[in-house]
Amino acid sequence: MTEQEQHERLMQRTLELARTGFIKIAPDPFRGALLAQGDQIVGEGYMANRNDLAPELHALKAAGDKARGATLYLNLEPAFGARNGINIVEAIIGAGVARVIVAMRDPNLNASGRSLRALEQAGIETACGVLEAEALQLNEIYVKDMRTRRPFVNLLTCMSLDGKTATPMGDSDGLISSASRDFVHTLRARYDAVLMGVNAILEEDPQLNCKVLRGCDPWRVIVDSQARTPTLAKIFLRSDPDEPRPPVLIAISYGAHEEHLRSLRHAGAEILHCPDEDSSSPQVDLSRLMQLLHKRGITSVLIEGGATIKAAALQSGIVDKVSFIVAPKIIGGQEAKSPVGGEGAMIIPEALPITQMQSRPLGSDLLIEGYLA
Ligand SMILES: NC(=O)c1ccc[n+]([C@@H]2O[C@H](COP(=O)([O-])OP(=O)(O)OC[C@H]3O[C@@H](n4cnc5c(N)ncnc54)[C@H](OP(=O)(O)O)[C@@H]3O)[C@@H](O)[C@H]2O)c1
Fold first, then answer.
1. In this structure, is residue 20 part of a structural domain?
2. Which of 43, 137, 295, 350 is the 20 to 30 A CA-CA neighbour of 233?
């Protein structure tokens, strides 16, 4: 095995550690740490919850004296400065670590490169960029948050092999496998908010809660220009009865009746005014909505439906990633629903290109993911 292959093997393990521990840590990034003497792992660390120690400190503690002269692998540059009274860079220097290899720098421009420079000034050799693409993908939500101050948006679709989301009668029950349903709930646990158009709420009345162990319900964001969401909709139900209020945000434009807004607030919804001031459209301005959601502390949004809102989201340029779950079933029928509505492309060069496509099985289904170019 070459030295580069050894670094990649140990960084792969570091990325696995970063993924371990807990489902949702936003706005904090996933971090893992591994200490090795040559190819021997002498300490590992990850964060078990948001209040846990930094993974570097867990790895240093696990390694003890073996940290001296070791190489520290990190998927992300260490945090700069002290946190809860502990300075991680100083801890690494104090333990006598000889070399620090990171997959990527901190995308936070105020911090980027600062910890690496401090380590170099203390005589520690540093290197950056091992499995960088994987590390960037692992922390895609954090990277978008730091670089653009907008939420990372993933458009999720469940469809049949022939690209239909439901039968002409609107039935989609049992379309996807139980492994896919678990995956959807894991996404809901990972993302801060789930977004839907109001028609999907009126027609399907989903609860949009999260059934993953230790996962908490995401914010439910309903795009609903005229506030047609019923106050008895299931989105107002809480998975955890101890939660003080159901996490519902209703994005409205012009034309919503004040009386109904009052009822929605009474039911627990928060109302966000997002009219499109730059056009004559009476509908919600999705870019503005993303701005307001980020101000509200929401760094990631999962768009679950329906076809109209998905088309509008893709057209407005807010979507970063698409996740398509494809079930091995053929629904057929001219009238059966497809995942993305709107006018669509007239010629193929107008079709939206998707890059970095990846696929993997989910039970009997196939998950296909990619990024908007
Ligand atoms: N299998 C799946 O993955 C899946 C998931 C979810 C839903 N569904 C299906 O999707 C169907 C509903 O889809 P749909 O296409 O009829 O409607 P939709 O996407 O659920 O909702 C569209 C509505 O959102 C409102 N809206 C507000 N601002 C908007 C904007 N800027 N752009 C676009 N819409 C905006 C509009 O109503 P206002 O003008 O009143 O605001 C619009 O009519 C349901 O039957 C459900 O079964 C399938």
1. yes
2. 295
